[in-house]
Amino acid sequence: MSTRFFASIAAVFIALISLSSCGNTIRGVGKDVAGTVDGTQAAGRSVDRAARR
Fold first, then answer.
1. What is the 3-state secondary structure (H, E, C) of 28-44?
2. b/e string for 1-33 if b means 16 or more Cβ within 10 A?
3. Cα–Cα distance between 31 and 35 in angstroms, integer?
């Protein structure tokens, strides 16, 4: 087995790890944004209810 072969395998593993990390980050950001939207909607409903009194 040559050094070039091992370098190629290492590059593939690094690429796979990088891509899986990116996917986790994107999912996490999506959850954060969804939480922010839910909070904003709840605050809007509270203001609406207070304004109707």
1. HHHHHHHHHHHHHHHHH
2. eeeeeeeeeeeeeeeeeeeeeeeeeeeeeeeee
3. 6
Q: Is residue 51 exposed (0-12), middle (13-18) or buried (19+ Cβ within 10 Å)?
A: exposed
Q: What integer pLDDT is reported at residue 41 of this predicted model?
A: 92
| Number of residues that this document lists for the chain | 53
Q: What would the pLDDT profile of 19-40 be if each residue is shown by its tens digit?
A: 777 777 878 888 888 999 999 9
Per-residue pLDDT of 1-13, as tens digits, reads 688 888 888 899 8
Q: Provide the token pair at 49.
A: 């209810």
